[in-house]
């Protein structure tokens, strides 16, 4: 049976670890050619090696890019189109949580600017170049390939709830991702380009585990999790697969929460 992303091509940022790595593997398993983009070329290459070993039927490539640099984001999209012939799925997933990002009184301007550059401008540029690329997609009805595509932007539960362990710039940046995604979804809906945010809950990936770096900090966060556990990168990847595939053909502009119920609970 063909996979849910058969004949499609995907670009994933932050693909060397966590959500991005799990999504790269899952999208490849579902038949997509995948460009793994990361600021760490070694990490992206390791992901490519895993795909080549497990899913040799698809093409996977690694590319070093800093999503905080517009020229890097453009180069990544150009490479995907050149190598795969089209771009159907753009997963703007790379993001940072600076260890010194704290509350309004302590967060420094340089941390605010860095966080906004990577988490907000990086997503803006990813959307911009993906939209330009998706407008050029050739229609091939025999393969179920219509024009347009799906853009997924990683936000966070902290865009919806205030975090008790504050990280002000990060929280503000993820709120911006939600707002930007909604607006772009409205503007590009009639071009057949869907845009959705995915809002992960707290995960057992390096990003959060480096931040909650003691058992006490982790236990404090666990108290607030309805399921009593951190999520796994693969659980977010499965949500991203739904948004990437035609299973979500009537879904755009949504904030898709994959958070173990966190944002519905007090
Ligand atoms: P992770 O640390 O496991 O992976 C992040 C990857 O992004 C790394 O491979 C890193 O090298 C790469 N990266 C960092 N800066 C980059 C840049 N400027 N350009 C390109 N690549 C860069 O993190 P993760 O948990 O998988 O997080 C992925 C996304 O999910 C982020 O946007 C994060 O904010 C979001 N998120 C994470 C959690 C969580 O609890 N881990 C919760 C909500 C949202």
User: CATH H level: which superfamily?
Assistant: NAD(P)-binding Rossmann-like Domain
Tally of alpha and pi helices: 8
Shape: globular
- Main sheet makeup: 7 strands, parallel
Look up the CATH topology: Rossmann fold
| CATH class categorisation | Alpha Beta
Give average pLDDT, whole number: 95
Query: What string, H for helix and E for strand, traces the elements in order?
Result: EHEHEHEHEHEHHHE
Rounded radius of gyration (Å): 18 Å
Secondary-structure arrangement, i.e. CATH architecture:
3-Layer(aba) Sandwich
- Helix percentage: 40-55%
What distance lies between the first and last C-alpha atoms, to the nearest angstrom? 43 Å
Low-confidence spans = none
Number of domains: 1
Q: Catalogue the ligands.
A: nicotinamide-adenine-dinucleotide
How does this model look, in words?
The chain is α/β, with parallel strands linked by helices. The longest helix is centred in the middle third of the chain and has 26 residues, at 109-134. Helix 1 (18-29) packs parallel to helix 2, helix 3 runs parallel beside helix 4 and helix 4 runs parallel beside helix 5 (168-188). The chain has a 7-stranded parallel beta sheet with strand order 3-2-1-4-5-6-7, sandwiched between helices. It has a single domain, classed as NAD(P)-binding Rossmann-like Domain (Rossmann fold). It has helices spanning 18-29, 41-54, 70-84, 109-134, 168-188, 206-211, 215-222, 233-244; strands spanning 9-13, 33-38, 60-64, 89-92, 149-154, 193-200, 255-258. The protein has 8 helices and 7 strands, in the order E-H-E-H-E-H-E-H-E-H-E-H-H-H-E. The structure holds nicotinamide-adenine-dinucleotide. Nicotinamide-adenine-dinucleotide binds next to helix 1 and helix 6. The site of nicotinamide-adenine-dinucleotide has 31 residues, from helix 1 and helix 6.
């Amino acid at each position: 049976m063909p996979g849910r992303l058969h004949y499609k091509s995907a670009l994933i940022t932050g693909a060397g670890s966590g959500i991005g790595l799990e999504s790269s593997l899952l999208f490849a398993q579902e038949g997509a050619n995948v460009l793994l983009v990361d600021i760490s070329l070694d990490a992206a290459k390791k992901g490519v090696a895993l795909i080549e070993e497990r899913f040799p039927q698809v093409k996977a490539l690694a590319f070093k890019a800093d999503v905080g640099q517009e020229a890097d984001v453009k180069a990544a999209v150009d490479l995907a189109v050149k190598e795969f012939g089209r771009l159907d799925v753009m997963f703007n997933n790379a993001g940072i949580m600076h260890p010194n990002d704290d509350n309004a009184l302590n967060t420094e301007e340089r941390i605010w600017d860095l966080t906004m550059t990577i988490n907000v401008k990086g997503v803006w540029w990813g959307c911009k170049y993906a939209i330009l690329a998706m407008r050029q997609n050739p229609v091939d009805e025999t393969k179920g390939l219509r024009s347009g595509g799906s853009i997924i932007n990683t936000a966070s539960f902290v865009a919806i709830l205030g975090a008790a362990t504050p990280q002000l710039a990060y929280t503000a940046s993820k709120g911006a991702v939600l707002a930007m995604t909604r607006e772009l979804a409205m503007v590009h809906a009639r071009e057949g380009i869907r845009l959705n945010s995915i809002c992960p809950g707290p995960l057992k990936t390096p990003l959060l585990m480096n931040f909650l770096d003691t058992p006490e900090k982790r236990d404090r966060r666990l108290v607030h999790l309805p399921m009593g556990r951190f999520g796994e990168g693969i659980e977010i990847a499965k949500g991203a697969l739904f948004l990437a595939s035609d299973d979500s053909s009537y879904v755009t502009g949504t904030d898709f929460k994959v958070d173990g119920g966190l944002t519905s609970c007090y």
